[in-house]
């Protein structure tokens, strides 16, 4: 029953983002607004990327050019998201103050960055994965051409999608931190990390699935850790003496 | 016939006893889709598939190898075609004489799984390749998942039988016809009169000759029913006779003074399914809805399977029992001999009348003098009767081959011999006698068997046609097949009279309604003498017809959805369960993790010194 494959892969790719949504966003209407609005910005970047790809199509350029341009566009949009929320922050505060339960902008600076990153990520994951999921509903799986095509395709794709959703979330936090503190090194790290992650996925073409998943998850760990730190998080068992050294990140 | 979601199974090539056993008993990955060559498409094997419950579908391919001479017979019609609709009742020994010995009756069997035919070599190769790469057992042991599988969809809406599906179709619906689940089989018969009927006079008894052939074929598979010997051979013979006689008429050489006043040509449709067309004409005659009646007919001459291509081939004249005419058969034999054609009477007297449209007429008038001319004496020469392989190759037809013993030569010779006999019967002088028209016969055979984009059809229809043969299956009523449409035009061309004073198409079309003028082939033809009559079984016209009586054909065709076949790799059940479980684990784990690490926790950081304006942060405060 390929419907099992469908549900299995949906849960893998969208399970953690769903959990994050449910526990950190769903209870607060303002956060939901931020999430949806940021998703829209990602869609804009997709639109622009596809226009670029369409322009290049007659010239038979390798896919890498379009992927690179898409990454650049996504970050431009990410920057616009950043500016947008900065501008709109006061409005959100107005709305938020009315409801005493929310505290989205009080002293949790990177909530906006986190939520908008999650929105970015979920939308990018959805567009990457939904049509593959739809195919997985059929009775068959990948592999009829032999030559290394693996029935593990769907699961691999799901894992990669999950990775990217979480990566987008982390990148957004790091990006906002970099912009806020004028530490453009951080911004640069985000762009490099994104390029690295996307480049690694080119290994999938040659069926070297492990070569793309493992390094990308490592990338995710590093970015996640960095985001955690940028947002001011500390593992509570860290001693304060190390504080000054660690903050050099 | 199949579930609406399609039937899926693992592909397995049945090419010997072992692989058959595998599918039926020993293979561990049932259900299977059986892939096979025509030699294995037999009644026994299909029944075994049905009874095993392990087969979800059958994919049949073309014969293996380019030289397709290994298949000696393939027919799914009954071994006694249409025996229930003939003149012999159940107790008569002449009823079922195994005319179609290779017939396995699968055409009429209710099978619970879809069966598809792969006509295209490239597609068959893909199937074999997929099977070899993934499924072929190695040293008798099964391969492991993933395996090559196939899904066949041929969902039919109708079920059980005709009275049931008609009743279901008649259910009231706001949208008329929306509840329909089946349609009666039917099309049009083509009836042409050689001479115009005198408006005041009606025909006296025994004054008309009927020359008939059937134009439909059948097969188990949609759109492939070449019926080369089964019907096209006879059809082309009669069309050629029509052309000969039409020409003689135009030259005013028909003569008069004979007691036989006219020739009616009848081309029946739907004969393969219980003599639909001929039974309807006989019924119409009884209801006085037909220009002539049964009593008007003196001779009924039918040309059945007429493809002959060897030097010692002959044609046989089968006669009805109650009324035989030595005069007629002698005449035919004489005219045949003059053209070096062997026309003989069957030696055995125990032989009944072979399946033919003549049966419909004899049922209502047992003393009608009728003959059926075929290329076989007892058992059918045609071992591929009413099935997909009854094509130009099997009858040995080669377009343009006009050598002495070619199919074209034999059919043209038969047609000329019959024409000359008819001319004598009509009282025409010996100078009017014709010679075999090889070109027309050759071209007609090409048109009907190989490509509809031939010169004759193109000129009649005025535009290019698809370069493949028209299917001969009768189809459903109210939807005339391309075959019957083009055949009526051919008949109009041959038997219609040229209107000489009209040379412009528009003038001709203006008079279409009033005078039945038709513009084709660059000229205007008066087509009053050619008519199409509805070929629908009387069972669907009579109120309270007793469906169980078996008097008339009651075949219907189910409404069907798009027919598709696809192949793919199927993962093992284990793989799917593992994927689902991993997904559930990931979901649950993440719900738990996020909850405990928690929104509040993760994001309740830096409680000190966040200011509203991020730009005032200092380095230490990261």
Automatic annotation (TrEMBL), chain A:
Subcellular location: Membrane
UniProt keyword list: Membrane, Notch signaling pathway, Transmembrane, Transmembrane helix
Ranges that cross the membrane: 32-55, 61-81, 111-134, 154-174, 186-203, 209-228
Principal location class: membrane
Matching InterPro entries: Aph-1 (IPR009294)
GO biological process: Notch signaling pathway; protein processing
GO cellular component: membrane
Protein's membrane topology: Multi-pass membrane protein
Family: Belongs to the APH-1 family.
Name assigned to this protein: Gamma-secretase subunit Aph-1
Organism: Orchesella cincta (Springtail)
From TrEMBL, chain B:
Domain Nicastrin small lobe: 4-158
Gene Ontology cellular component terms for the protein in this record: plasma membrane
Example GO biological process: protein processing
Entry's localization field: Membrane
Pfam families: Ncstrn_small, Nicastrin
Database matches in SUPFAM superfamilies: Zn-dependent exopeptidases (SSF53187)
Keyword Membrane included in the entry's annotation: yes
Record's bilayer topology term: Single-pass type I membrane protein
Top-rank lineage group of the source organism: Eukaryota
InterPro entries cross-referenced by the UniProt entry: Ncstrn_small (IPR041084), Nicastrin (IPR008710)
KW Nuclease (keyword) present: no
Transmembrane segments annotated in the record for this chain: 577-598
Keywords, in A-Z order: Glycoprotein, Membrane, Notch signaling pathway, Signal, Transmembrane, Transmembrane helix
PANTHER family (UniProt xref): NICASTRIN
Family: Belongs to the nicastrin family.
Protein name per Swiss-Prot or TrEMBL: Nicastrin
